[in-house]
Design a protein that fits this description.
This protein is α/β, with parallel strands linked by helices. The chain is built from 7 helices and 11 strands. The strands form 2 sheets. A 6-stranded mixed beta sheet has the order 6-7-8-9-10-11. A 5-stranded mixed beta sheet has the order 1-2-3-4-5, with helices on one face. The longest helix is centred in the last third of the chain and has 13 residues, at about 170-185. The two termini are about 25 Å apart.
């Protein structure tokens, strides 16, 4: 999704195709959200486009959303951000990564910096509202860009379903509360919603088609 000549929001599907990672760039500066896949693939993209990585953000700590984050943060000497309630998942990712034949997260990996609700400037002129959305995981987050009407929702809500809550740290009641809190924010129907997996939708589309979005 390209919003104007300078700011780009791009959904990237790194192999093995599984997760909707998002690359946001302004000029030569870039940040990455939910970097799935191999660090070498991300390095190739950044170098080919002559982008300077400034930071990495994760909607939550499941391996399919942070597999490349520690190594990428070390390689480019940048910070990566994850809510502290999901830190326990990072060190337990390797069995999952084995299923996709992805490199392990190494012992002594670069630790994430805690991030919670608030508004920050992720790149020059790009403000991002961070919304806490526990339930799928204890430290789940959503990232909303009010100027561009784009919401990165992670695995809280999908096109016609919701995120799982039967894994370690999941909580059904908190998940439904997070979804309800998002609904009550009354974002415009035209707000684009990028889910952690599957096709992107919009707030208006979810109101009409997702029975859980209420």
């Amino acid at each position: 999704m390209q919003k104007n000549n300078e700011v780009k929001f791009e959904i990237l599907h790194m192999p093995p195709m599984n997760t909707n990672s998002v690359l946001v760039s302004v000029g030569t500066d870039a940040v990455i959200f939910d970097p799935w896949g191999k660090v070498t693939d991300w390095e190739r993209v950044l170098l080919k486009r002559k982008l300077k990585l400034r930071a990495i953000y994760a909607t939550h700590g499941h391996p399919d959303h942070i597999s490349a984050a520690p190594a990428l943060a070390s390689m480019f000497d940048v910070d990566w951000f994850l809510n502290t309630n999901d830190n326990f998942m990072v060190g337990n990712a390797n069995d999952f990564l084995d299923m996709f034949e992805l490199p392990h997260i190494q012992d002594g990996y670069k630790k994430p910096i805690d991030i919670s609700k608030g508004t920050i400037e992720v790149l020059p002129g790009i403000d991002m509202e961070i919304m806490e959305s526990p339930g799928h995981t204890p430290g789940g987050l959503m990232f909303y860009f009010p100027k561009y009407k784009i919401l990165l929702i992670g695995d809280t809500l999908f096109q016609e379903s919701i995120g799982r809550y039967d894994m370690p740290g999941g909580n059904k009641d908190k998940l439904f509360e997070s979804i309800s809190n998002l609904y009550k924010k009354n974002l415009s129907d035209g707000t684009w919603v990028v889910h952690g997996h599957g096709m992107e939708t919009s707030i208006g589309w979810l109101k009409k088609n997702n029975q859980f979005f209420k």
